[in-house]
Amino acid sequence: MNTPRVSRESVLDAAMRLVEEQGFEALSMRRLAAELGVAVTAIYWHVGNREALIAQLVDRVLAQLGDVAPAGRSPRQRIIAVGKALRRMIHDHPHVIALVYEHGRTALMMLPAERALAREVGAAGLDGRRGAVVVRAVLHHVVGYVLLERAVRRGPEQHPTTAELWRDADEIGIEPGLARELGRPVDQDRLFELSLRALVDGLLR
Amino acid sequence: MNTPRVSRESVLDAAMRLVEEQGFEALSMRRLAAELGVAVTAIYWHVGNREALIAQLVDRVLAQLGDVAPAGRSPRQRIIAVGKALRRMIHDHPHVIALVYEHGRTALMMLPAERALAREVGAAGLDGRRGAVVVRAVLHHVVGYVLLERAVRRGPEQHPTTAELWRDADEIGIEPGLARELGRPVDQDRLFELSLRALVDGLLR
DNA sequence: ACCTGAACACCGTTCAAGT
DNA sequence: ACCTGAACACCGTTCAAGT
């Protein structure tokens, strides 16, 4: 009886490395096997099939993520802080969101932040119905924003550049100063913070 | 000289049908060929390779989408109307967003709505810098919201159901009435409209 | 308990060859 | 100009067989 060549953990480790270094689409059973120096079918013994492997990867990653820590004096400030922390957390683990999104477990990823928001909203003294709307609206705004950031960033070098798209804008009734501004690249950090603040202000009014 | 068996258009038609009926992942060159009753390689002659095929599909779909029509009396109402129309448009073409998202051309899909928003924001009398923030914040909110809706809807029947997730909430400092409310299913239409209104209110203040 | 090898049914893509 | 067939390098998965 000789020691096992791989284990569930070593398979997950290698899979995680593959995803982090080469992206989600590089994760194939055969490449994984080659990486581990083992026959493809050995992997199946340890983790089941590909879908199960990904599920276990998602579980592991979600466990690592950790809670978001709110900071600030007023409930309003703390709600905004949770939103910013959530975005930062997702940004710090770009491979995670691909994995989680592709496997349809976004709702679970958002749960810690949802709870943190619920605490702050409760502290702000809102009743259940109005409070739930605030929690969910903020949560949706933040996560949706990050998903879109990802989608747009992934875009190829656009054939028509952003500036060109707005060159003819005044001909179709768009104010020139506005068109010029919209032709510039977006400062995502600034836009995120401004829109989050506006949303929270609108919700707490 | 006999007539061609397929054309660029017939290939795109068949590909579109495949995506609409069986989803994006069902679109393979070989299946497409089988559907058309032709050798796989014939497709390559007409559309290039798979990536090029998808690009042409995206172009065609974006051309079909049409503009969003604003309605309402005040600029504020019209901005909200554009946001709602954009979400409806994306919802009406669920296969489109998969295609566009997967191919990184989300920014182009948003352009008509962005222009409609720019007109309304200009009419509201905001200057360039502030107006651009409003346009982009609303646009990001709406599209991000829809992307997240998609992600969450795709989630498998969660092992822990939503209600269970909030059962122990009061033990970790969450107000019971709020926890009960968060355990209920989300009314997406209502939440979308409320959060959009709040965002616009916060932005126009 | 743990691993291999062969086999099956799929992929996308290239290339020489046919009409 | 338009299409075929063979070939190559990939996939995920199952199954019988080995130790």
UniProtKB/TrEMBL annotation, chains A, B:
The keyword Transcription applies. The keyword Repressor applies. GO terms for biological process: negative regulation of DNA-templated transcription; response to antibiotic. Residues 5-65 form the HTH tetR-type domain. Gene3D superfamilies: Tetracycline Repressor, domain 2. Residues 28-47 bind DNA. One of its GO terms (molecular function) is transcription cis-regulatory region binding. It comes from the Bacteria. This is TetR/AcrR family transcriptional regulator. It comes from Actinomadura rudentiformis.
